[in-house]
Amino acid sequence: MAEDIEKIVEAFSDDLRENVRKMVASLKGASRTPLNILENAGRIQNIFDFTQEKMSEMFPPAEPIACQQGCTFCCHLLFFTDALTVFIVADRLKENCSPEQLHALRSRLTDFIDNEYGVTQVPRPPCPVLADGLCMAYDVRPLVCRAQNSLQVSQCEEKHQGKLDMVVAHDIPLRVWTVMSEGIAAGLAEAGLAGNESLEFVTALRIVLDNPAAMDQWIAGEPVFEPAQWTDSDGPPGPLH
Ligand code: SF4
To answer: Could you tell me if residue 236 is inside a domain?
Structure first.
């Protein structure tokens, strides 16, 4: 029985990865426009939400999910994402924030980067997009943020303090995130675009907010995200849990 379920999940994962790859790989030639890039990024987030919700109904967590509005432990973790996500987050922030809010955000981003918090510092300060305990880009937050579903908030706190490496989490959202990230990376490579899931979010976001031409330059193949790219050949640090 367990083997049968695993086979179903494997087959579903393969289809999901392939569909995401095709969607992202379609960003070629004349269809590689800013509008299509943002629409593609939004569609990916919708697919993630829908898929993880349906899969979670079929394979519910062993205990209730502990995550609640206002709990921000996972917003203190280092994370990596892809270029499509960085563009949609930046676009939404520019659209929704006042000039004062944007100015404050850019100061937090600069502060964060200038202090070189690095990979290992714990506790790390929060993601600069967090303001008054809330994500300023919640509806377009990265897949990795959507995938965090802890079963025990006490473990999140211990991880935040550097006392624990792994938190017990619901496996389904993490699995959907991993599979979709693989599809995004494969699709970007096929479309000849840089910026797979190895972009450090804070650095990449500041690049886009600081440079209004960043998307056009990225479309033209310029290495706009180079300072944010994780370069270790083993790839960026894995899932947060
Ligand atoms: S993007 Fe939003 S949800 Fe993700 S770490 Fe930053 S503040 Fe938290």
So the answer is: no
Mean pLDDT (whole number) for 129-137 = 95
239 is a domain residue: no
- Predicted TM-score (pTM) of the model is 0.92
Measured distance CA(17)–CA(19) in Å, rounded: 6
In the chain, how many domains are there?
Answer: 1
Q: What is the pLDDT of residue 115?
A: 82
- Given a contact cutoff of 8 angstroms between Cβ atoms, the answer to whether 92 and 137 are in contact is yes
Our mutation pick for probing the ligand 1 site, out of 49, 72, 92, 135, counting the most ligand atoms within 8 A of Cβ, is 135
In a domain, 152, yes or no: yes
- How far is the C-alpha of 213 from the C-alpha of 86, rounded, in Å? 14
Point out the ligand 1 atom lying closest to the alpha carbon of residue 138. 2
* Domain around 105: 2-228
DSSP of 171-213: HHHHHHHHHHHHHHHHHHHHHT----TTEEHHHHHHHHHH-TT
Q: How far is CA 153 from CA 59, 66, 68, 149, in A?
A: 21, 6, 9, 10
